[in-house]
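Researcher: Structure for this, please.
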Amino acid sequence: MHHLNTAMRLYLSGLLLFGISLLLPAPFQAGGLLLATGLSGYHVTAEGLQDTLRASRQHRQFTPNIHLLMFLAAFGAILIGSFREAALLMLIFAGAHFLEEYAEGKSNREITALLDLNPVEARRLTAQQTVELVSVADLAVGDRLQVLNGDQVPTDGTITQGTAVINEATITGESLPREKQVGDAVYGSTLNGDSSFQMVVTKTSQETTFAQIVALVQHAQTSLGTTATWIERFEPRYVKVVLALIPLVFLTNRFLLDWTLATSLYRTIVFLIAASPCALAAAAVPATLSGLSNLAKQGVLFKGGHTLTELSDLQAIAFDKTGTLTQGQPQVTDVSWAPTADPVTLTNLLVAMERQSNHPLATAITAHFTPTEPLPLAVTNTVGIGLQATYHGQVIAIGKPTAFPALPVDVAQTIHDLTAQGKTIVLLAVDQQIQLLIALMDRPAEHAAATITYFNQQQIHTELITGDTLLTGQAIGRQLQVQHVSANTLPASKAALIAAQQRRFKTVAMVGDGVNDAPALAQANIGIAMGGGTDVAIDVADMVLMTNDLTKLTTAHRLSRRLQLIVRENLVLALIVVALLIVLNFLQLTDIAWGVVLHEGSTLVVILNGLRLLLFK
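Model: Predicted structure, token format:
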């Protein structure tokens, strides 16, 4: 940073001296312009020469860069007495270079800002219930902490006492605070509201969700897209070609076109400026980093810029059902009582029995039904059959339809109709007489339908992959308009389905959140993990949505396509300007000053075009 500040001061000094020199008498003007050229171009010249020497040693061959071309052009302009043009060249080139450094440093500043949010101290509770201030790095799993109002949560953990309203913007990108209570997970770096609570540590500071975010963004910065990587490899080869053409251009000017020595030298210098690939080199990197930075602030993380660029080529996308396209929490959708049933008494029995079960359906049932009084019951839970209890001499049974051998025709028909809709059926019987039918279904996640519609409209094949039955999968598929449903799939077969898709489509993505999704996420060209998912799924994924908000996925896809469009625009503009300047130079319709303005002006336009992605929504 100190080096950059020094370079900027030298540049500004050169800019000021350039303006003053233009006002000086002719005898003094040349000296002022020479000094302005040296001051403004010192940073880029020194950096270019150092990079050229370092790269040449590393590759064991001459590996020049654009800075060397600009230095040679400025030096040539000075040799033929064009001092003003030499100074102007260095001023505009160095200015464009500083702007590019700003664009590329934007993501680094985002990382610095993230690291500044990392908590450093925690209030640890001792065995004597006293509080000691300790470094977050010294916390161990199982430590008990106190978090006061206004404190940052020190590390990931679970609330054991109290309630909280926590701002999780550093994790999810959403500023709306979330209410937390005993048993809820909290994340390091998030901000506690106006209440205090106690928590137990579940992850060390190196393993927290926030630490994973920082690591992902840092890694993405060093792994850019395929276009950016190609340009970086192409640049030294291009510069070598330009250097090799310089003597050929001069000889052509001097002997083939029969220009004077002075004109030939002048036109060779203009060619050197025109042919330099400054805009070409800036076509992809600033835009890619701007896109990564924008999405990181929205809670969308990539393990490399190549994933962001590859996302634009997506041809097929597969979704896990539970927890991805659905809420992962079954809800009661239908309730049907027998004509002879006593709803009040049976509701009390139902809730009393289901509260002694840990099945996910039991949670949905107890949340839906409200008892009038608690009933102490001895409940037997038989795996594969259901719950049984005795009440006033009657046997109360709760289970799936297969647990009841003889079902009335009307009940069997209702079960068939509801099952065809993808719903799960639970029955309650008194002495084998069906008194209550409950249908449950895992409802689609918020924005799931809009997400599937978006990809369908983009002519991207959509598929639902689920371990549930075909009827359940097809019911959700119809509701969301998914193009194809694969049901009854095991983890290994999910990966095989993705492999089959890859034989049909060039780029295939898989979206999931569980351990059973990990093989498919790893198999896909782009594995996308939901932030509420397991660590295993997140570890193997190429892209992570820090919240279970599928609109972030469509935003990322739209941004990736905009990125590719901007890169293509930049490449076309850069090549057109180079070709135009070369033609104008041979027609003697441009000079060094206009060559510098047009060439470096195109570089500024390319950089600013890429920076637009910082504002993309």
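Researcher: Any notable elements?
Model: The two ends are 31 Å apart (CA to CA). Residues 140-203 form a domain with the Calcium-transporting ATPase, cytoplasmic transduction domain A fold (CATH 2.70.150.10).
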